[in-house]
Amino acid sequence: MKISIVVTQEEHYKYAQEICDTIESSALLRGTGIAKRTPEYIQKKMENRDALIALADGKFAGFCYIESWQHGKFVAHSGLIVHPDYRNLGLAKKIKSKVFDYSLEKFPDAKIFGITTGLAVMKINSDLGYKPVPFSELTSDPSFWAGCKTCTNYEILKSKENKMCLCTGMLYDPKEKQKDPPKHPFNVKVLNRLKSIKQALFLKK
């Protein structure tokens, strides 16, 4: 089975609704928080060529898009998703790696960051050279944090004044030239423990 990963264009607009549905259903299945996207927003990212899509014989297989903040000073990858029919093939890592390289081309001086509760995404980020950081090292742009309002954990984030949540912040600074090899090897046990501590602190009744 051949899966191609390409920068989006007009012919891919038809997948916007399916992408949104897959992102939402995946989050519900995992029981994690999610910042919801609309098909219109996804299509806008496609129009601006700020997204990559994976296709298998014309069928939607995966997706991820780029957002920039503070005039290109910070860049984030959002909406990383793989369709259930194409999981366990290493596709998420391939998409993430391609969108990472594409981001470096479009925004060569930007710091690339992300926030996530998923250990699989943390592993991929770590392999690319990201390091865990406090939220204070991420963008201060309020419009980024406003995107978390539809997440089930938003009240936690708001109560901590955008300084902490169940998500872990991760950052890649191109000035450190840390992609190969990573300077911060991924440790599942450590990050799993961190996640458990945050859940115990923030979700206690």
TrEMBL record:
Top-level taxon in the UniProt lineage: Bacteria
GO molecular function, one term: acyltransferase activity, transferring groups other than amino-acyl groups
Pfam families the record matches: Acetyltransf_1
Organism: Flavobacterium frigoritolerans
Source organism phylogeny: Bacteria, Pseudomonadati, Bacteroidota, Flavobacteriia, Flavobacteriales
Protein's name in the database: GNAT family N-acetyltransferase
N-acetyltransferase domain span: 11-151
